[in-house]
Amino acid sequence: MKMWAGRFSEQNAKEVDIFNNSLHFDKVLYKYDILGSIAHVKMLSKQNIISKDDEEKLVKSLNDLMKDIDEGKVTFDEEYEDIHMAVESILTDRIGDSAKRIHTCRSRNDQVALDMKMYVKAEIKEVISLIKNLLYTLLEIAKDNTKTIMPGYTHMQRAQTVTFAHHLCAYSEMFRRDVDRLKDTYKRTNVMPLGAGALACSTFDIDRDYVAELLDFDNITLNSLDTVSDRDYVIELLNDLAIIMMHLSRFSEEIIYWASDEFKFIVVSDKYSTGSSMMPQKKNPDVAELIRGKTGRVYGNLMAMLTVMKGIPLAYNKDMQEDKEATFDSVNTVKQCISIFTGMISTITVNEDVLKEACVNSFMNATDVAEYLVKKGCPFRDAHFIVGNLVGKCVNEDKFLQDLTLSEFKEQSGLFEDDIYEVLHVTTGMNKKNMTASPKEEIVKRYIDEILDEIK
Ligand code: ARG
Questions:
Q1: Residue 323: CB within 6 Å of ligand 1?
Q2: Domains of the chain in sequence order
Q3: Is a pLDDT exceeding 90 seen at residue 449?
């Protein structure tokens, strides 16, 4: 018989039982459900709402149950509806009346909010530690590549010379912001909901601050209606995770084309590549492609939750049970993607010669030539036009700026002197860029040291 069956005179349709049931996915919350119940029981006893004897029995059997579930000794009966009912039912089977007191001053509505907040807090910590590991890996590769020049692109056209380290550090900035966003979400999740009851608290003199303290929450929620109907923190987490996937997906896209025969910038290790069932020569970057692909479902989960919440009147409505699968799926997907991406990137080989070739055989020094003229007094817009003419001439004659003679330079501007050839050298321009954020070796090295120190 269902715990809430008192006012019913008929059984639910079998279909309804199956439809309503969330145990098969929300059972992953068991640890938080039990820890939350232990704190609740301790508070009830402290406030003399249940006896010391009940407290002892309940705390012991909750701990025993946790251990039994940890060890795989509990098979959840699908009759139980959800994890909250399952825990209470098993306790009742095991210790009888004391267990029937556990739900005093509590509803599944504030209970599920507590469980989800505890889950989100724990998972945020896990995702942050995975990102830090990725950051560490990226920065270690960057350290070895502060001299490895490569083309920097805009519009996928060679633009100005940067280094492989500088390119990796662009991603480290994105992942640092991801950590920041997660920490911010953590702050708003760290507010304890228990005590709101179903929607309007209870008539007992409960101590919510005590529960918050036991469960390591910074604050308690301030409005009971909001408490049981707030899923902002879930949406924020889903958003943070979607942005992480967007970053991983962009990076994956680069890995994919860098590894192509057209680019040959890197080699992805065999460990992180797969073959074709038909074409014997193929070595495919499936890992990077799958990460790019899985970004779709993580975006989808965010959209799903925004949509679920958009028309729900206060306070709790069952629609909100839909938060679980979306959240669990995004969390699990993102954790797996960060971890496998870290493995993949840590085993790539960088083709320094190919990257250098791509820089030398290019017009990426054109901006430096324009700035050379400006330093000699030419207005920038005129300098831009002059160098543009020179590039046009080179394109027609199938050569690069460094192949032109001094008299060819002088035909365009008398300001050109012999020192132009130093400017045309592939690393000269980059090495003159001394400001923060520049690709220059020393600046990138300093950045790497600072960030390695920060994530320690
Ligand atoms: N399984 C439910 C959920 O995930 C728990 C809360 C149910 N509350 C209720 N009154 N039906 O949202």
A1: no
A2: 5-104 (1.10.275.10), 109-146+153-198+228-352 (1.20.200.10), 358-455 (1.10.40.30)
A3: yes
Strand extents, DSSP E, 288-429: 349-350
> What confidence tens digit (pLDDT) does each residue in 96-109 have?
999 999 999 999 99
Please identify every residue annotated as catalytic. Answer: 155, 276
Residue type, 42: K
Query: Which atom of ligand 1 approaches the CA of 82 most closely?
Result: 1
86 contacts 77 by C-beta, under 8 angstroms: yes
Pocket lining: 29 vs ligand 1, CB cutoff 6 Å:
no
The pLDDT assigned to 3 comes to 86
- Angstrom CA distances, 384 to 335, 380, 407, stand at 48, 6, 19
Nearest CA to ligand 1 atom 4: 321
- The predicted complex's ipTM stands at 0.97
Ligand 1 atom index nearest CA of 83: 1
Q: Say whether pLDDT at 142 is over 90.
A: yes
Bridge partners (DSSP) of residue 160 are 152
- Give the residue, by CA position, lying nearest to ligand 1 atom 11: 318
Burial class of residue 277 in the structure, from the number of CB atoms within 10 Å of its CB (0-12 exposed, 13-18 middle, 19+ buried) = exposed
Q: What are phi and psi of 150, to 5 degrees?
A: -150, 160
Q: In testing the pocket of ligand 1, which one of 103, 318, 322, 325 has its CB within 8 Å of the most ligand atoms?
A: 318
Interval between CA 279 and ligand 1 midpoint (Å): 52
**Which residues are paired to 191 by β-bridges?**
219
State how far the alpha carbon of 108 is from the alpha carbons of 48, 115, 228, 262, in Å.
22, 10, 9, 58
Cβ-contact 429, 367 below 8 angstroms? yes
Is the Cβ atom of 112 under 6 angstroms away from ligand 1? Answer: yes
Under the banding of pLDDT at 50, 70 and 90, the label for residue 25 is very high
Confidence grade of residue 78 (pLDDT, cut at 50, 70, 90): confident
Pocket test for ligand 1, best of 33, 108, 230, 317 (most atoms within 8 A of CB): 108
Under the banding of pLDDT at 50, 70 and 90, the label for residue 5 is: confident
Distance 317 CA to ligand 1 centre (A): 8
